[in-house]
Design brief:
The chain is an all-beta fold. The chain is 0% helix and 50% strand. It has strands spanning 3-7, 10-12, 18-25, 33-39, 46-51, 58-60, 68-73, 78-83, 92-99, 108-109, 113-117. Strands 2, 4, 5, 6, 9, 10 and 11 form a seven-stranded mixed β-sheet that branches. Strands 1-3-8-7 form a four-stranded antiparallel β-sheet, with no helix packed on it. The protein is globular, with a radius of gyration of 14 Å.
């Protein structure tokens, strides 16, 4: 069955770095664009970063641009989010999403990984 499994979250001090991974299985990873979202309690999900099927095109939320880098390895069916210069306001559950490009296909979500930025 389809699975998206995030890992790499944890507790880090302000200014620190973390690398999140999203391992995909059960679907053709290379046919899906991918994205990272984050969510804090009481708020909706915020799009953090997006990457095209080949990885050639990426976009970022203004709040993370220049600090975060999204990438993917289609041979490993895995997407990454390198997060640098972390701030307390980056604290959230980070979720990955597979974005279908063909009509009628479903999107898929992972369960999320907690990132806490605190001193």
């Amino acid at each position: 069955q389809v699975q998206l499994v995030e890992s790499g979250g944890g507790l880090v001090q302000p200014g620190g770095s973390l690398r999140l991974s999203c391992a995909a299985s059960g679907f053709t990873f290379s046919r899906y664009a991918m994205s990272w979202y984050r969510q804090v309690p009481g708020k909706g999900r915020e799009l953090v970063a997006y990457i095209s099927t080949s990885g050639a095109a990426t976009t970022y939320a203004g709040s993370v641009k220049g600090r975060f880098n999204i990438s993917r390895d289609n041979a490993k069916n895995t997407m990454y989010l390198q997060m640098n210069s972390l701030k307390t306001e980056d604290t959230a559950v980070y979720l990955c999403k597979a974005v279908p490009l063909r009509p009628g296909e479903s999107d898929y979500w992972g369960q999320g990984t907690q990132v806490t930025v605190s001193s």
